[in-house]
Amino acid sequence: MSTTTLRAHVELAAARALGEYDASPYSVTSGCFDRRYWAWKLVDFPEATFQRLVYPLATLYRDPQSRCHGQPEVLAAVRSGIACAARLQHANGSFDQAFPFEQSYGATAFLVGPLIEASRLVEEHLSTEERSTADRMNRRGADFLCAHKETHGEISNHLAGAAWSLIAAADRFGDGRYDAAATRLVDGLLARQSPEGWFPEYGGADPGYQTLCLDYLSAIHDRRPSAPLEQALDRAVEFLKWFVHPDGTLGGVYGSRRTSLTYLGGLARMAGRNPAALGIYQAVSTAMAGGDTAGPLHVDAGNLAPMLTSAISALGQQPAQRPAIELPCRTAGARIDFPSAGLHVRSGRRYYAVCGASNGGTLIVFSRESGRLLLEDGGYVAQTGGGARLTTQAPAQARVDADTIEIDSAFVGMSTAVPTPARFVLLRLLNLTVMRSIAVGNWVKGRLVAMLMRGGAGSDLRLKRRLVFDDQGVQITDRIENPQGQALASLHGGQPFSAIHMASAGYFHGARLGTARPATVVDVERLARDRAVEIFTTV
Question: CA–CA separation, 53 vs 17, rounded Å?
């Protein structure tokens, strides 16, 4: 993406950010960036993580090339946004994201650094009281991160964000405790990085979120350079380069969190010394410029702040337009297996394919000639007569060789939980009582995450998928077995979907226009009668 195009995206996204906050100085919610709360009044508490929008706005306020430069309206948004964040903070330094009194480690991790940096950028415009309030808030937040851990899952981008916030706090306050805590987090991340190059996201590899983890870790390396961290970043990029597609998108249904977002900042930061990072940056930013992949203009408020911050960081780096490596998606015959991640890449003269064995054999196939998506197959979903849903999107056994991948996956219960008034009443009763305890709240949160992120109980239904790759295309043979002759209401496949709760998955990509394929519809009466059916597809 050219500097001019990226600048235009950033300026439009910044205008959108300004539209999210309560600009009235007379409002009791002045400075709140959760428009659902202060304007629509559709939620009963403000999500604190939206306040991190003050950081990209403060950056643009200081940028002479931005239309936001020196503008009093932008400065007012930053000042009132910081003040609002201080009002939202709990006495123990934490912030809420998902529910009242959550006291979320992740929300605090994502907020402290941006609030510190925003305060620093506009410090000369803050009163003595405002500076004191901001510093007190940020110290409390950093203290919370030192004293607590995230317990409901292994989420590498959260830990990297916490480490970056702690380093920002160490630089701001000269407190060695924050540096020591950041070092422990980074050392833990490096120890848990797979030899294949990926950082765990809920126990697996997710290329989309890996770009956010890379963004934080590369920013940490800028401030605290070290050879082990640099090597880890290079391994992470080597892993990522395999999941850039011919249309410029990255990630998708095969990742542990099914995301296809790309945060540009870390890639741009590394592009000057790492040709693979430069190649990824050029491919994805070009797609983003044309609206072919999701960027800060295309995501909802939950991801606007980190996407905009990362895009501004990339704008500040803007790697030179020099030759980069040829990415695997441009190379006929490119092939690699990441068995620990359960990800397998194959390409021929005419196609590029990624199989997610870890997600039950999900498959995405692109034309190398046109770059267009040919197939995005998230697996199968069955609906029982009672309305329950079963899916193949779960960890599966795989047998892999150069030209064939065989998947054996059980159908497991698919989470279909959505909020209801009764559930919200129960949750709010818990929030206002026993869940004010961090320990109890984290325990409940862990149970909720387990329900939403993991498949339910298995069933007798099985999918045995055989993928054969040759130079021209992919042959898919699906054998669905129903040994008990279970009666099903429906059974469909061949469509993109996520079987887990993941708010950051499912954003639309312009490159997908005109690529939809009809769903595979299985004859469930025949499946119950014959106990098995076979489906053949060629891509």
Answer: 7
